[in-house]
Structure formats: structure tokens, C-alpha cells
What we know:
Blueprint: E1 2-11, E2 14-24, E3 29-33, H1 40-47, E4 55-60, E5 63-64, E6 75-78, H2 90-101, H3 111-115, H4 131-144, E7 149-153, H5 161-176, E8 180-184, E9 197-202, E10 205-211, H6 212-219, H7 224-239
Parallel strand pairs: 3-8, 3-9, 6-7, 7-8
Antiparallel strand pairs: 1-2, 1-4, 4-5, 9-10
Helix pairs in contact: 6-7
The chain binds adenosine-5'-triphosphate.
Amino acid sequence: MIEVQNLTKKFDRFTALENLNLSFTDGKSIALIGPNGCGKTTLIKCILGLNVIETGDILVDGKSVKDDYLYRREIGYMPQIGRYPENMTIGQTIKMIKDTRKISETHLDTELLESFELEKMFEKKMGNLSGGTTQKVSAVLAFMFDPKIIILDEPTAGLDPLSSEILKEKIIKEKNKGKLIIITSHLLSELDDMVSEIVFINEGKVIVQQSVTDLMTERKSEKISESIVSILKEMKNNAQ
Length: 240
Ligand SMILES: Nc1ncnc2c1ncn2[C@@H]1O[C@H](COP(=O)(O)OP(=O)(O)OP(=O)(O)O)[C@@H](O)[C@H]1O
């Protein structure tokens, strides 16, 4: 479980997140939605301890992210753009991360590795990979250590349709096992099958946190994209 409490994140005088209060429970799949620059990645980085928190707090399974870094072992993270040592091969990169995590082979989740058929490409250097293949390596690593929480930043951006489908099915499978999944995406149409809750952020503020079922009922729509358009129209009308 993740609880975001009165979180404000500033970069110098710019306020990227303003007084966020959110609660993400296990077994839920949450979509973080909002325009470019609204603060989605900033929030994810605060959860991961990659951004320093000065105001407010984030609790992961009851423990503040400010206390120590051990909680990160429970989180699998797929970044928007994965950065890896360019001269290492895919095989060496995966082995290096496996070695640092010290988890026995029998406890590793290699399902995505097999579905993406990455083993065939183990000798390729990370620096020479296509964007989509780098994304596949990031996805494999996010799920490999069977974490309780999985955070995916634009997971299907750059993936071909078949690979996107493989990843979506994996996300649904892990959610159904009771894991907490957080996804950011601009591709609203692909979220319908995957997410149970949405958090809509605009200019660093939470505009809506709602279950997909409630959202659909309230907005009288059958798709997340239609509901979001309705929220945006409402925001525009209120601003006029
Ligand atoms: N390290 C930083 N220093 C200064 N400003 C930053 C930093 N990181 C993020 N920002 C700013 O904070 C705001 C939120 O950025 P963030 O990357 O969280 O947006 P986002 O919602 O993930 O956008 P996108 O949909 O484009 O990925 C932006 O205005 C960005 O320029």
C-alpha cells in the first residue's frame, strides 16, 4: 500500500506537485493521467526516493520513504526511458541486476523474458538496441523480482502491437495476484482493460481520484478516454 500525505514538491521556485493526498491499495491497478508536465513522473520519482521530499510524506506499507531505501526492494520500476551501460550486452545487464538483488533463480519471474524472446538477443549491446527492445529489457527487469508493487512509466510507448499486448496481459495477471500496479500513459484507449482506478493530475494538483466503475457511472461513458474528455471539458468550462 502507498499513502501520499500532503506532498508538495518544488524545483527551486516552481511547484511541480501541490499538496497531494492519495491512497493506493494492493490489488488495484491505478492509472496516473494528465497533460505533459503535470507531475506524473515527479510523483513516481518521489515514491521511488529518486526525488527528495521536503514537504509532506509518502508511506510504502506504512514506512516513510524518507527512512531508508529497503522498501525499494518491493517495487519493480519500468522507467519512461531506461538508461543502461552502453557497452554491456542484454545478458550481462540482466545478470548484473540479478546478482545485486541476490534472489535465487527459482524465485525469478522470467515470463516476460520468454514471451519477448529476449534470450535470442542476449549478445547484443545495450547501446545498439532499438528503443522498443530497450523498453522490453526494462519491462523484464520491472517484473523479474516478483515485487509487490509495480510502477510503469509509459510502458507501451515504443512497443510494437504484439509486445504491447504481451505486456498488458502480464500487467492484468499480476494485478489479479493482488499486486499494486501504477501506470502512467497517454494512450487512454489501452487503459480500459488494465486499470481499476484513475488519478487525474493537472498542474501538479489531483483533480480526480476515482474507481473506473464510479467514473464511468458518473460520466455516463463506457470508456476511460470519454470520461477524461468529459473532465477536461468541465475544467475548460469552469475556467471560463
Ligand atoms: N529535476 C527537475 N528540475 C526542474 N524541474 C523539473 C525537474 N523534474 C521535473 N521538473 C518539472 O516538473 C514538471 C512536471 O514534470 P514531470 O516529468 O513530472 O511531468 P509528466 O506529467 O511526467 O509529463 P509527461 O507526460 O510529459 O511525461 C515539469 O514542468 C518539469 O519541467
